[in-house]
Amino acid sequence: MLKIKAAVKTIEGCRADSIPDEVLHSSQPLVLRGLIADWPLVAAGQRSQTEASDYLLSFDSGKPLTAMVGDPAIKGHIFYNSDLSGFNFDYQRLLLANVLEQLATHRDSSAPPTLYVGSTNVDNWLPGFRQHNDLELPDQSPIASVWIGNRSRISAHYDFPTNIACCAVGRRRFTLFPPNQLDNLYVGPIDLTPAGQPISLVDFSDPDYRRFPKFRQALESAQVVELEPGDAILIPSMWWHHVDALEPLNVLVNYWWRDTPSYLGGPLNVLQHGILGLRDLPPEQRQVWKQLFDHYVFNPDPEHIAHIPEQARGVLNPIDEATAKKIRTLLAQKLSR
């Protein structure tokens, strides 16, 4: 196990129906001990794996899930193949009953195959579940997702939305790094990823410090926590997090939300377009475009556009949904040429 000195700050006494605003808007990770201790799923899981499975099945929509299935040799590590041309697992479409049956079959195995159901929309696949197992986040309008599997290792990655991850069944260990550790985490491809987000190529279970020497620097900024059933963790936007699921059955429910309207689009799209249009320009041209981005995007001082009549500012004005739609249409037209 990695030697990490810093623990994630813990908040006691939070309730699922009244999470303080200062928690929801924290710029640092926070552990919320016992946040969902009253959930029926948590109680079922503490009684037995069978009861937890039966409880989940009572809400089953009957629609197939997407599962990641790997040989015992990968030891739960959802990752790439040896040359990064693909992955070390297969995607399979399975019914929830099949997933839970397979997890039960291999419950006592010391080397089970990996079976991992990633982010799956709760409302679509477990209708009714949130009636008794939910967080009250009326101002955030979050997307609730469920994650189900046996022991797994999910490589360090970031998420753009803010995230409250609730440990309902089993235990999970989170290892977190601030956003500024990008260079020290040796991140892999951004256009071929196991689950959408770029991931660290460092194997946290056995780091190769010769290949990844700056990972030692990342560890100096790391925080770690182990969640018990009923606990939750708030992960701020863009914080890197590596997640170990530690039991034969692990169920996590998480809530994602962004602090800006969804019609504004995703920043990763901007990055990919920047790679396409800017990265390979001559250095002096890239520098000019960096100044333009600083001026219009990263330092949008109202004084920069004060000389333009308000009705003539176009996209330099605050973006509303109608303007966002026009921009998307224009971009789609330009990119299709």
Kindly describe this structure.
The chain has 337 residues and is of the alpha+beta class. It has 2 domains: 6-259, Jelly Rolls (Sandwich); 263-335, no CATH class. It is 25% helix and 23% strand. The protein has 9 helices and 15 strands. Strands 2-3-13-10-15-8-7-4-6 form a 9-stranded mixed beta sheet. Helix 1 links the parallel strand 2 and strand 3. Helix 2 runs antiparallel to helix 3 (49-57) and helix 3 runs antiparallel to helix 4 (96-105). 33% of the residues are buried.
In short:
It contains nine helices and 15 strands.
Features:
Jelly Rolls, globular, nine-stranded mixed β-sheet, single chain, 2 domains, 25% helix, 15 strands, 337 residues, alpha+beta, six-stranded mixed β-sheet
Which ranges are low-confidence, i.e. pLDDT below 50, for 5 or more consecutive residues?
A: none
Order of helices and strands: EEHEHHEEEHEHEEEEHEEEEHHH
- Named CATH architecture of the largest domain: Sandwich
Computed CA radius of gyration, to the nearest angstrom:
22 Å
Number of spatially distinct domains: 2
Mean of all residue-level pLDDT scores:
96
Beta content comes to 15-25%
CATH class of the largest domain: Mainly Beta
How would you sum up the global shape? globular
Distance between the termini: 51 Å
Count of beta strands: 15
Main sheet strand line-up: 2-3-13-10-15-8-7-4-6
Overall SS class = alpha+beta
Largest sheet: 9 strands, mixed
Helix content: 10-25%
> What is the CATH topology of the largest domain?
Jelly Rolls
CATH superfamily of the largest domain: Jelly Rolls
Number of helices: 9
